[in-house]
Amino acid sequence: MSTTVTKHILGNVALRVSPQHWPALQKYYCSVLGMTVKQLPPISTLNSESTDARPRFLVSFPGSSKSHIPANTTNALQSLLLSAALEFRLDSQVAADSSFAGSREDLYWKVGIALDDVDAGLEHMEESLGVPHGRLGRGDQFVDVGFLHHVRDPAGFAIELLQTTMEGNEKERRERVEANTATAGSRFFGAKNSASPVLGQITTRASNKEATLKFYTETLGMKLIAIEDVSQYGFELYFLAFTDENPPNPEDLNAVENREWLYQRPYTTLEIQFFKGPGSGTRVVGDKARRDAPGCEGITIYTTGSDSNGEERDLVDPSGLKVSIRRAEVFLGNGKDGKGNVQEDSESSSMNEC
Asked: Of 104, 243, 272, 288, which sits 20 to 30 A from 296 (CA to CA)?
């Protein structure tokens, strides 16, 4: 019988990089995307059975409110968490001149950032990078999925800028942009975008749809809230979250009318891509044979650990993606570690100013 995890939230995606990558990554995420960086305790200090002493850094958006937490999240987690984050693990085995190549065989694809005006965001990113106007390209309406654009960070990891409205929905986009402009908007993505961006998606791939969805819904307790059938490109997208919310058309999760609602959620969803042909989502992340290159080492789900279902443990989804269940208070350096020592609180944890 499967065990259901309760009182939890999608916490972060763990990305392995070279220590030499880190200065450029920190500058990019702080100075270009406006995110903040927090240094986390090495895993070996939190777990007496672990020898993983690699430096860890949590990269997240600042200034978010508790509205960025699903309504069914416990108060203990609301006090710690905003939308999900990226966790960078600095690994000396990763070659300094390497980058994440990424292919449809990899279990990890990208993260997504929700913006009300993608093109305005790209313009401000170009200004921050000091590159000519138009260098990063501009957004496009991708079939009936959404208006979006992809960029890559200095280590080669993909970031999708996903607009909260479709290209043709000018009325709602104008209303959202006007509301942002009235409140000064975003320092990094421009006045047309919200000052509190959300990491909208962590996107992975899988090869066995039925088993994968059963794992995330029945074993982990996530809710399937949207489906996007992109058959003309040979794949489907499934979106899951720890939430009690229902989309506008809950009877048809593939309905286009659900998509703008999905992109406007104030919390992070897990997006899983399933290719209809063979060979997708088959390369196990964190494999020792690939430790010399940047890669994904799995995702982390935070729990309060307040009951028998909140115990910390490591799981593996049907395609081989590692899913770690961790008490947020400890994992983020805000509670007792695996040796019984009290960790410093979040206000005094090491922060890297941008």
From this structure: 243
